[in-house]
Design brief:
single chain, about 350 residues, alpha+beta, 5-stranded mixed β-sheet, 8 helices, 7 strands, about 60% helix
Length: about 350
Amino acid sequence: MLFERPQFTEYVMARLVTLSLTIFVIISVILAIFITDTMTLALVIFLLWLAFTIFVFAIYRGAAKMQRELGKINKYLKMLDTVDTIDLDRHFFTREFEQINQNLTKVLEKSKKREEIKQRYNTKLKLKNQQRGDMISAIAHEFRNPIASIIGYAQTLQEDKDIPPALHDKFLGKICNNGDKIEALLGRLVLWNKFESGEAKLHQSTFDLLSLTQEVKSALVDDKYKQRKIIIQGEPRQVEADRTLVEIVIKNLIENALKYSKENVVVTITEDTFSVSDRGVGISEEDMEKVTKKFYRSGTHNWDNSMGLGLSIVKKILALHNTELEIQSRLDEGSTFSFKI
């Protein structure tokens, strides 16, 4: 380009050569005035020219080194977003350029740290957005059936004024049951939110694990599983834990077994272990590590039809008690869910 800015060496040399030629001409004229001998004058002018040439060449070498160093720094600045490291041990011609190199290294390290923090934040944000979408989808799926049932029974009662009393009471009972389902779903959602926000705290007390299990059994059989049999094996076992949270664990494990097994469910309490076994559909190896993840819904079996939170909540509660859920299962043979006491 005609008006392109010169490089550092070109700019320095243009100024230096112009200044040197000017000084050389002026000194040569002065020497010509005072030195009358032609041979002496020629020798002095030649030596003067040689001195100026060496001086200009020395300045050129220094300027070229400085230009290369500026090129290195400019290269780092251009690649600041992609370069991983700056060669801190590289030797520079001047102390100033070495300090610039060191400062660039610090800037690069800070930039990389900020980029890593930004990437982690973006990853967490994407995960949160995905989980929020999964939650909305799960809530819509789980609430749709009970709400549709309530609307259907209510419309029937509203439109048919001559409905028999027995059928009228039956429909009201269906409406109440579906209302209870919605309340239970909301309860699980609120509980999970407490775990996610870190608000859940233990309120420990000493209680009998066998008695608590019998209470849970009675509630499940009287409520939804009147035709099912839950066998409890074991002796009274005093434990120190959060009774309310442990009740949620026991209820989730037993109800999970009841949903996916048509045979008896066996609860075993030993000196150091609580387990729930069923002879149901079992869990494939592919699903084994996924069933305790929140919002997970198997394509083969819906392991947890409460927004995918049931076993995940169990896992969280057990973690608060410094223990963990263990799963042993064979597909089409049954499963055993257990935890150490």
